[in-house]
Amino acid sequence: MSGSIQRDLIKWLCVPLLVINMIGALTVYMIAWLPAQKALDQNLAEIAFDLRMYLRLSDEGIRLELPEDDMRLLRANIAGQIYYVIRHGTDTLIGDTDFPPLLVPAAVNQPFPYSGRLRGKQVRFVVMRTVVGTQSLLIGVAETLENRRQVQANIILTLLGLEATLLAISAAIVWFAVREGLFPLQSMRSALEARTSTELSPMEEDLPVELHPLAKAINDLLHRLKSDGEARQHFLANVAHQLRTPLAGLKAQASLLQEKYAGDPEIAHTVGLMSSTTDRMIRQTNQLLALARTEANNTEKRSFEAVRLDKLVEEAIQQIVFVADQKKIDIGFELAPACVSGDTLMLRDLIDNLVDNALRYSPVGASVTVRCREAGDRVEFFVEDTGPGIPEAEREAVFSRYRRLDVKVPGTGLGLAIVHEIVTLHDATVSIGSGAGGKGTTFTVSFPRFDPDASITAGEEVDAA
User: Which PROSITE patterns does the UniProt entry name for this protein (predicted)?
Assistant: First the structure.
């Protein structure tokens, strides 16, 4: 089931609020309209009382002694029309002869309002039974509904404006309340999204009580993932360590056989194949060890020390030159003093993998240059070759595990992935560009420069020598 909790909460809060507001609006309308209706009915009743005051009983019968001006004033109504009638029984004595039959109130001089029709129009009636002399009379007064509808329209428009304002305020309050209520959940999501794939430390449980079960479940899952990852890392490291000794012995035996049977081309060829296969297995073992180290440092608290990057390259020169000579590649070094904070073994893995990558993909007769230097507050490490280069569209992808651009070149596809992991752990950056003249490839790793005078995690200082 998919959906939005925020949207559902807003829906389930706003819909009842809308219904309640509608019921409230109807109630308020009735409360406002009924007194207004009663007041308008009272106006008609006062007209009936006024007519009663001017009724006289004479020898000729019932007369209405109301001056003509007062009569016009009595019928005057800006919004509608006023009708009246005075009857004795069913006989119309005075007024509008087409007045419909009147209801007879039970009490004398007590106006009785009701609705009906007159001359094809909806009107409001007020009927009053009274006695003049010895005669019982009915006084009826009617008013068209224009005035009442205007009052109703004013009430409705006022209520609509009030309800629209209240609904807008209520919706804003609901939206704000739901947003604030879900903020801890959104913060939890943001914190999880900001983590890398190897950051498996427990989440902080400084959360609302309702989120504690969720946080606990996530932390339990992270703990299981971390345990499984550590078990896998230990397995890789143990396997690699167990393989290194027999592989070193096998390599030594192959070297002895090569020397012993150098004069026999067939055996020398077979032993050469054995030796190259052993070299590949040794490299794969070293790659597994390097991968285990980087993954372990991803999940454990890191404690770095000051490392002279130029000195670390110098330690690897002999091995690098040996491999370059075998492939007849011109190798050069431009090393300036450069200090970084890091893990010595991982930085050595980084150097070995970048240089090995350049030597492995460069053809016979190519050149490879290794440089390091300080540049402001950064330390830059370069490995430049004149090999085939890497297409720009493929440069980001080469840092993925098991990605190989040329399957004909032996390798595991892990070297540059390990470089990327080490770079990330050291808060450094790695970029790929073209070599001099647009040929070949240049890998550039930029580290934060380490101040030799500052203390380091392990409490050691850089040897100035």
Answer: HIS_KIN
Contact 379, 312 (CB under 8 A): no
Conformation bin of residue 297: beta by default, left when phi > 0, alpha when psi is -120 to 50: alpha
Same domain flag for 438 and 448: yes
What's the number of domains the chain is made of? 3
Q: Same structural domain for residues 264 and 313?
A: no
Which amino acid, 13?
L
Q: Six-digit token pair at 373?
A: 């230097």
Q: What is the pLDDT of residue 459?
A: 33
Q: CA 222 to CA 211: how far, in whole Å?
A: 16
d(CA 272, CA 274): 5
Q: Which helix (H) or strand (E) holds 77?
A: none
Does residue 167 fall inside a structural domain?
no
In a shared domain, residues 337 and 231: no
Q: Is residue 30 part of a domain?
A: yes
Q: Torsion over CA of 239, 242, 248 and 251, rounded to 10 degrees?
A: -60
CA 320 to chain centre: 50
Closest CA to 84 of 58, 55, 108: 55
Are 292 and 199 in a shared domain? yes
Residues 293 and 352 in one domain: no
Output the CA angle 326-327-329, nearest 5 degrees. 115
CATH of the domain at 129: 3.30.450
pLDDT at 457: 39
Q: Do both 240 and 363 map to the same domain?
A: no
The last residue of a domain, from among 134, 153, 172: 153
Residue 227 · residue 200 · CB < 8 Å: no
Domain range holding 388? 303-465
Spatial separation of the C-alpha atoms in residues 299 and 277, rounded to whole Å: 33
Q: What is the dihedral of CA 166, 168, 171, 177, to 10 degrees?
A: -90
Structure tokens at 43: 């106006």
| Low-confidence residues of the chain: pLDDT under 50 | 1, 299, 301, 455-465
Q: What is the CATH number of the domain that holds 199?
A: 1.10.287
263 shares its domain with 333: no
Amino acid making up residue 344: T
d(Cα 357, Cα 148) in Å, to the nearest integer? Answer: 93
DSSP letters along 182-221, please? HHHHHHHHHHHHTS-TT--PPPP--S-GGGHHHHHHHHHH
- Between CA 103 and CA 75 the distance in angstroms is 22
Rounded Cα distance between 277 and 273, Å, is: 6
Complete edge-to-edge strand list for the sheet that includes strand 135-144: 91-95, 82-88, 135-144, 121-132, 112-118
pTM of the model: 0.47
